[in-house]
Design a protein that fits this description.
Layout: E1 8-12, H1 17-28, E2 32-37, H2 40-52, E3 57-61, H3 67-81, E4 86-89, H4 104-132, E5 136-141, H5 154-176, E6 181-186, H6 214-228, H7 233-246, E7 250-251, H8 258-269
Parallel strand pairs: 1-2, 1-4, 2-3, 4-5, 5-6, 6-7
Helix pairs in contact: 1-7, 3-4, 4-5
């Protein structure tokens, strides 16, 4: 998609972090934007601020873990702007501990947002884009955790690996049909966002009754400190828009992490036991 002006972008998790940065970039490109987010108070504040700057946008409270919410999001997008040209399945949360100690509610919540949210987005919007018969693009937010694996983040890793696989498969399927709909998968490293505080949006019916252990609290502090000194969301948004323009599939924003990907690939090809790329960092 070379031209963005007057095209319609839909961004989930769009009220803060990477999502908001993408929304702001889309508005600078004179796109019409639909912001979807589950955090209503922050969503309304974002809507007010960006409309004051002259942006053409619609804010829709959306829980991406519910198929009905995504279907309603698509209906409201078409009703307001008549099309959907760019979809950023960006909403994401973090949670859980070791594979066996994570509660079932951890699994349900993180997989519901990170994986099912992308599945629902693709299933709902791809048919719309195909029917439009013109250039369109889908960006699925995964993570470097979708390309490497690290201890104590098992649920998150699993969802992000699944998003990478889903995106690659979708790319092949659309290419097989010579479709004008293109796909990218975003795999950033650490970004200065509020993902460690994801629990603020956790539904009451799947709250986690477990308290963090001393070791988990230590890891939380290490991750928190690392995030404070990490890449700003605006740089991620720049990379996303450039990838859409260039029809680039893999969006790897943290070049210094590429050796970790290569090391994992070599371990697989040489059938060596896997090593933890963050071992010894306290995270």
């Amino acid at each position: 998609m070379k031209e963005f002006k007057d095209k319609v972008a839909v961004v989930t998790g769009g009220a803060s972090g990477i999502g908001r940065a993408i929304v702001e970039k889309c508005l600078k490109e004179e796109m019409k934007v639909v912001i979807a987010d589950v955090e209503e108070k922050v969503l309304r504040k974002t809507e007010q601020e960006l409309k004051a700057e002259g942006g053409k946008l619609l804010a829709v409270v959306t829980d991406v873990s519910k198929a009905s919410d995504i279907e309603a999001l698509a209906d409201k997008t078409l009703e307001a702007f008549g099309s959907a040209d760019l979809l950023c399945n960006n909403a994401g949360v973090g949670g859980g501990t070791t594979i066996w100690e994570s509660s079932l509610s951890d699994w349900e919540w993180v997989m519901g947002v990170n994986l099912w949210g992308v599945i629902y987005g693709v299933r709902t919007f791809v048919p719309i884009m195909l029917e439009q018969g013109r250039e369109a693009h889908i960006v699925n937010t995964a993570s470097m955790a979708g390309l490497i694996n690290h201890a104590n983040t098992g649920i998150y890793n699993l969802t992000k690996h699944a998003v990478v696989s889903l995106s690659e498969t979708l790319h092949h399927e659309l290419a097989e049909r010579n479709s004008k709909v293109k796909v990218s998968v975003l795999c950033p490293g650490l970004v200065k966002t509020q993902i460690l505080d994801s629990a603020r949006n956790r539904p009451a019916n799947i709250e986690n009754p477990l308290q963090m252990s001393a070791e988990e609290q230590k890891r939380y502090q290490a991750w928190s400190q690392a995030l404070q000194n990490s890449m700003p969301p605006e740089k991620i948004a720049d990379a996303v828009m450039q990838a859409v323009r260039e029809e680039k599939f893999y969006i790897l924003t943290h070049q210094k992490m590429k050796p970790m990907i290569e090391a994992r690939m070599q371990e697989i090809l040489q059938e060596r036991n896997p090593t933890d790329p963050l071992a010894g960092t306290g995270m």
